[in-house]
């Protein structure tokens, strides 16, 4: 994103199946960006490393966790990461080191999207990977959302600084 004030930053969140962490992060970052006044400078999407859940909506637990905090994600549908995503996004933000490693291997050129860890924006969280809550109950989704909320806030600090530059 350039400092011109007119550029759009595009972000793709990636988790394993695109039914838990990445759609929660997508819905959260969109909502927070609007609250921070930078929603018009940010394009957000999410995808999964696999096709296992392609076309499915986020898990009920993820939708509940998100809705409890004011984020609606029920209209999102799972999709896999595509080769076009490497050209269409500025940042591809991964939930785990394994996702990051696999996507870096798939990227064709260093000129394409930066492939980052979600926790790179919030190193003080005390974790490197965002834990996968799938199948672990509502409390696990709430914990993952806690981690993601801090990461998204820290991402927005960078976005706001870029817009102001």
How would you describe this structure to a colleague?
- With 165 residues, the chain is an alpha/beta fold.
- The chain has one domain (9-159): Response regulator (Rossmann fold).
- The protein is 39% helix and 13% strand.
- The chain has 5 helices and 4 strands.
- The chain has helices spanning 21-35, 60-68, 85-88, 97-106, 138-164; strands at 9-15, 42-48, 91-94, 114-117.
- A 4-stranded parallel β-sheet has the order 2-1-3-4.
- Strand 3 (91-94), helix 4 (97-106) and strand 4 form a beta-alpha-beta unit.
- Helix 1 packs parallel to helix 2 (60-68), helix 1 (21-35) crosses helix 5 (138-164) and helix 2 crosses helix 5 (138-164).
- The protein is globular and about 40 Å long.
- It starts with 8 loop residues before the first strand and ends with a helix.
Summed up:
The protein is α/β, with parallel strands linked by helices and 165 residues long. The protein has 5 helices and 4 strands.
Describe how the helices and strands are arranged.
Blueprint: E1 9-15, H1 21-35, E2 42-48, H2 60-68, H3 85-88, E3 91-94, H4 97-106, E4 114-117, H5 138-164
Parallel strand pairs: 1-2, 1-3, 3-4
The CATH topology comes to Rossmann fold
- Main sheet strand line-up: 2-1-3-4
Low-confidence stretches: 1-6
Radius of gyration: 15 Å
Number of DSSP E strands: 4
Structural shape:
globular
The proportion of residues in beta strands is 5-15%
Helix content: 25-40%
Alpha plus pi helix count: 5
First and last CA, distance: 10 Å
Mean of pLDDT: 91
CATH superfamily: Response regulator
């Amino acid at each position: 994103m350039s400092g011109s004030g007119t550029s759009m930053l595009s972000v793709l969140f990636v988790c394993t199946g695109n039914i838990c962490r990445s759609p929660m992060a997508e819905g959260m970052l969109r909502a927070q960006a609007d609250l921070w006044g930078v929603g018009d400078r940010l394009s957000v999407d999410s995808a999964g490393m696999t096709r296992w859940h392609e076309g499915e909506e986020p898990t009920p637990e993820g939708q509940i966790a998100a809705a409890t905090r004011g984020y609606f994600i029920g209209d999102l549908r799972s999709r896999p990461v595509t080769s076009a995503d490497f050209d269409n996004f500025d940042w591809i933000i991964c939930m785990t080191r394994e996702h990051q490693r696999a996507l870096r291997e798939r990227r064709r050129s260093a000129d394409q999207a930066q492939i980052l860890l979600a926790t790179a924006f919030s190193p003080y969280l005390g974790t490197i990977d965002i834990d996968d809550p799938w199948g672990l109950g509502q409390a696990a989704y709430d914990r993952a959302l806690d981690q993601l909320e801090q990461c998204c806030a820290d991402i927005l600090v960078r976005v706001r600084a870029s817009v102001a530059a």
